[in-house]
Amino acid sequence: MEPIRNFVIIAHIDHGKSTLADRMLDLTGTIEKRKMKAQFLDQMELEQERGITIKMAPVRMSYKNHILNLIDTPGHSDFSYEVSRALNAVEGAILLVDATQGIQAQTLANYHSAKSAGLKIIGVLNKIDLNPDHIDDIAEKTAKLIGVKKEDILRVSGKTGQGVEELLDAIIEQISPPLKPETNELRALIFDSVYNDHKGDIAYVRIMSGTVKDTDDIHLLATSTNAKAKEVGIFAPELKPNKSLSAGDIGYIATGIKDTEKIKIGDTVASHKNTKALPGYKDPSPVVFVSFYPNEASDYDELLRSLQKLHLSDSSLFYEPDRSEVLGRGFKCGFLGRLHYEIIAERIQREFDIEIINSFPSVEYKIKKNNEEIIIQNPKDFPDDYDVSWQPMVQVEIITSTDYLSNIMAIARSFHIDDIRTENLDDQIILTAKMPLADLIRDFDDQIKSASAGFASFSYKLLGFEEGKIDKLEILVAGVSVSGLTRIVARDELEREGRKMVEKLKDLLPKQQFTQAIQAKSRGNIIARETIPAMRKDVTGHLYGGDRTRKMKLWKKQQKGKKKLKDRAEVHIDPSIFRELLKK
Questions:
Q1: Which of 69, 265, 453, 503 sits at a 20 to 30 Å CA gap from 580?
Q2: What average pLDDT does this structure show over 281-293?
Q3: How far is residue 247 from each of residues 5, 208, 225, 421, measured CA to CA in Å?
Q4: How is 85-103 classified by DSSP, letter by letter?
């Protein structure tokens, strides 16, 4: 194991992780020049388009008689669970800092995670080709954060390759090889997985002890599943078969298992069931809940299969069957944040070709009614009458320059931000505050970026539940509650949000042959109303001259017919109208 070095690249979003990984692949000859392209490890079309890493990407490189196993990780806080899993599979981390921006919110969060995992951390400044001002100051701050000398902070350019060779040398010199295992018994930690139609469930593993070869019998401890290794191999970065994987290696095992529920992230692969399991991962708790419904009812089973396959590679995705009176059968899904939910929704449409409609994003609430505490994940289950309500709170950490502090403080008033504290970080301010998670998943990110001209960054962590002044907002059309539009809203925003929704619905809903009342309701009271008048049809148009009595008879008959139609009318809300209503 002496020539093996396992490491991750961690950084704030857009600090150049994937570009630096490209140069490493280039310099080590892992990828042929003619095949090289930008963001090579970001194989997902969505990653290429958005310019962000969504899934961790492992790759094996050879350099100066050493094997370097790199895992490129996402930078956005919604995908911090991906980062935490990668940290458990390696011995070292490159903490990458954009030399033009300096330390950002996710830089700090990732640093603390790597430190807690006991990894050797190498500080690196990226984008030095831009000759940024104050680069020495940023190097000093980074050194102070890590606890090293300023000259120990390496300087590279992922774009030009400057300094990357020196970084590879530092990885070999400073990061320890894997520890020698105490046993030769096979134990491998599953840190990720994907599904393949031909090979079944493919487990991405770090071999902690022992050896595994193809055709070996293996046992998955968490699900008590026996299987045979159909193929073992390494990441080159595509899956490349290898004769075997041994202690210290990072690679994959194709299990041939077709049931996606049998593979669990954090499980231990062993040679027999009596093996002691490795410490796994704490299951992530979803914080944002959105219901997905297929546009075509016949796609329900396909939607289920797509969620099963996505869950295999993303264990933080939660789903269970759900039903809506308007949209039919679907699934209530749980996510780690708003971006996480948006990415999954887009992947379902692109990778599985399923058109979906989703409900409003919501969070989990707790209420107390008749001395019983109840957890509410679906807004339609929130009662009008209760004793106490609690909502999830988060602590946000915003890093901004002093120039934009007043703008950001102005935003606080519209987001129920509380307990604001500031701390100086040389020429920057770290602003720490508490706010409801429901406010965070609205458009807080966009507002912060807008208020700071794109320069401020933030990270957050869950604090738990606190008592909150919140109520259910229902939308009724022709007297019928539309469950897909039900939301939990802060009490001081009920009237404004209700008014906004009924006005929008009035513009979107088509006229019917009867009058439609659109109402916003909370705690049994109507707080906003709009009316769509009935379609007008001139039933007397064919008459001319003569006695008015005949016209009156026809008008009364028409009114009577409209009243009867209204009494038994069912309003159908087209999926396209739902899409318009659910736009941010």
A1: 453
A2: 82
A3: 12, 5, 22, 47
A4: HHHTT-SEEEEEEETTT-S
Superfamily of domain 187-270: Translation factors (2.40.30.10)
Domains 288-358 and 369-467 share a fold: yes
Q: Which CATH architecture has domain 369-467?
A: 2-Layer Sandwich (3.30)
Maximum average pLDDT range among 226-230, 286-290, 308-312: 226-230
Q: What is the DSSP letter of 522?
A: E
Binding residues for GTP: 14-19, 126-129
Q: Are 320 and 303 in contact (CB under 8 A)?
A: no
- Residue from 12, 224, 237 nearest 106 by CA: 12
Question: What is the tens place of the pLDDT at every residue in 45-63?
Answer: 766 677 777 677 899 999 9
Please check the confidence at residue 584 and state whether its pLDDT lies above 50: no
**Region of residue 26 (left: phi > 0; alpha: psi -120 to 50; beta: else):** alpha
Average pLDDT over residues 112-133: 92
Quote the tokens at residue 117: 């995992």
Pair of tokens at residue 301: 């089973």
CATH 3.40.50.300 is held by the domain 4-174: yes
Residue pair 141/97 in contact by the 8 Å Cβ criterion: no
Binding residue positions: 14-19, 126-129
Of 139 and 327, which is predicted with more confidence? Answer: 139
Answer whether 0.85 is exceeded by the pTM.
no
In the chain, the N- to C-terminal Cα span, in Å, equals 52
Nearest to 175 by CA among 30, 33, 384, 5: 5
Domain residue extents for the chain: 4-174, 187-270, 288-358, 369-467, 496-582
Q: For residue 133, what are the β-bridge partners?
A: none
How far, in Å, CA of 471 to CA of 577, rounded? 25
